[in-house]
Amino acid sequence: MYDFAIIGSGVAGSTIANELSEKYKVSVLEKGSNPKYVLEGKNVEINYVYGLGGSAVYSLGNAMKIDIKGYKIKKDIYKEIWEELNIKCPEDRFLNEIDKKFIELGFKKMEKFIDFDKCNKCGECARKLCKAKWTPLNYLKDSNADIFTNFNIKDIEYCGYYEILDENGKKIKTKNIIISAGGINSPRILKKLIDDENIGKNLFVDIFVTVGGILKDSYLNKDVSMLVYKKYKNFILSTHYSKLLYNEIKKDYKDVEEKDIVGIMIKIKDENCGEVLDKNTVKEITKEDFKTLAKGVSEATKYLYKLGVDEDIYTTIPRGSHPGGSLSLVVDDFEIKENLYVCDASLFKESLGVPPIVSIIALSKKFAREMLL
Length: 373
Fold this sequence. Notes:
The protein is built from eight helices and 21 strands. Helix 1 (11-20) runs parallel beside helix 4 (136-142) and helix 1 packs parallel to helix 8. By secondary structure, the protein is of the alpha/beta class. The protein has two domains: 2-85 and 128-202 and 324-372, FAD/NAD(P)-binding domain, CATH 3.50.50.60; 204-320. Strands 3, 5, 6, 12, 13, 14, 15, 18 and 19 form a nine-stranded mixed β-sheet that branches.
């Protein structure tokens, strides 16, 4: 019998497991094993990762602190995160020439949970595991939790305690359940436990596009993406090499090389208008979202021309990579009912519009500390 069963091994689940397993008997239940990308969504394509460690195993290592509406986080927690993840800005010697040009145009260095002395600038942060970057696997390794992979939940029953049954017949008994499966899968799991028409509604995804063009020998493909950025009210601009962008440009310029592609990501604070369904996700681009994207594309295009891009400007399709908010209409704080809790980005009441990993860790540490009282 476990004291806590945490469903999900991503940023939230790994943080909570690391904290609670010092005092309690904890299990972590993960649907997958090796991390794999999942694409779903109607209108806006949403990509996330399921597998041990969740989406953050393929993150770009961005650390941006921002207030979380409805949740007061103590400064000490952020200080602790910065120390644990060894978060810092890259030194000037780490920057490529293209990064330095962006900084001359008013961009700032991005703080990262990357050991820049170990980073070889492969440009593959979003596609392969890396020892230079912190991921939830670090917290899982440091924890005392029992970790179960390929645990695809079939049913959850309550009989004075919870019995969680997977599709292969394995059963986990626990006094408490913490759902931390992320903005897409947490509502799907919660539907097995309660009946509420608001489950899955209010979804945001931090819609983004990458715009760019040809700039000879810019070598953005051999750089850490989003190494420099510029923040606006409802969006950010950041350097970003995109294979999707490269493929679009290559349709017109057959001989173009990856080293000659320069791109800027526009990531916006989108409206909470999406919904997670049982088998699919629906997210529209609202009129306000479109206006924000258009403004971001306009700003990015100005910078591309200033850098010397003298051919056509291309763009990727709108996508989303930070799903959240999908339980914010159901869960007021963390507790749904006695011995049943939720803690992850599904609780966020509005889009952050910036990389959320530090915010999710902070929220999870706050929750875990409350459980330890």
